[in-house]
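Reading a protein record of the kind used here takes little practice once its layout is understood. An example of such a record is reproduced below.
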Amino acid sequence: MASAAEDKRFMAAAIRLSLRNLGRTGTNPSVGCLLVKDEIVLAAGVTDVGGRPHAERIALAEAGEGARGATAYVTLEPCSHHGKTPPCADALIAAGVARVVISVLDPDERVAGRGIAALEAAGIEVETGVLEADGRRALAAYLMRQVNKRAYVTLKLAVSADGLLGRLGAGQVAVTGPVARGQVHVLRAQSDAILIGIGTAKADDPELTCRLPGLADRSPIRIVLDHDLRLPLYGKLALTARDVPVIDVAPEPPGFDDADDRSLLRRRAALDSTGVEVLQCNPSQLDSLLAGLASRGISSLLVEGGATVARSFLDAGLVDRIHLYTGPASIGESGVASPCVSGAMPPGFSLRRTMRFGPDLFEEYERDEECSPAL
């Protein structure tokens, strides 16, 4: 029998492993699984790219007969329903594991305790809730989509020493160094989608892809809030839309009654021709947008837009996590004020961790549990 300390140690390793494929597992969560016997890790698995095979099956295949009598550490309750693959609970039973330790119960109504019941009915000892807070943090996007039917939102802000995001009319202004910017690309690789407003799209002409060596194939879906379909046809987003998906969010055209309406329809046709998808949704109705994204299987959304977009998500109470990067330089006159600066967060957010990337300060804030949607 493993001690409580050993259970926590191996579960912590399983949770770290689960982070490897964040943003790459489609509608399935990225789950980590370790098979351990006599305090030795026999095998490890993480949900594969695209969502299958599941972590448990990968670990069991690696362990082979060694899995008999082992303890399985799984970050999410093993599935118990027949989908495109048989249930992982059945696979653990067939492999003869003696014990299963679980961090987080699965809220999916097809599972929701049934995986545990199946394991226990087969005589397997089950322990739940080990490092649950850490497990829920790693699975936050999946849990948000399952329970609240919307995407989990991370707001990323890069702020100068004097609390500014950039300079009016100057386009993108670099306020952090290359190490911090590299961390942002890692965050992009872990996100299902990234969002900006049309103002940022026109002023900065960003590409919004992950450009770290070896991670280019992990670029997220790119989304632009665009009331009037003004996304530039020859900007980087439209020109690369056939390589990395771009969604332009705009209201439904009111009709064919006047020249303005016909102009909107022509602009939509032009965007369609580039490969940009025009999603008919009022860009001001962010809750509807997040629900619509969740219905497409998008669990995590990184908001990188400017001050206006950042403020709109904050005012709507739809930000779950804030990544704040503060550089050492000042911008000065004509600067655009950030809605958040170090030490002055909106109510309901608490600092979770602080790091230094060269001269730049990184702070991660999360919404307090009592202020968060029920997960």
Summary: The two ends are 31 Å apart (CA to CA).
